[in-house]
Amino acid sequence: MAQYRKKIQEEFQNLSAGLKKVAKHLLDNPRSFAMQSAVKVAKEIGVSDATVIRFCYALGYSGFSELQQEVREHLMNVPSSLHEFQAEKEKLADNTHFYINVLKQHQGHIHSVISQLREVDLHQAVQRLIETDQILVAGMRSSFALAHWLVFTLNLVRGNARLYQPGSDDLLLLLSQMNERSTYVAISFHRYARETIKLAQILKEKGVFVIGITDSEVAPVTRYADLVVPVSIPVKSTIDAAPSVMAVLNAIIAGITIHDRERFERRKATYEAHQLDSFFQEEHLS
Question: Does residue 30 sit in helix, strand or coil?
Answer without folding.
Answer: helix
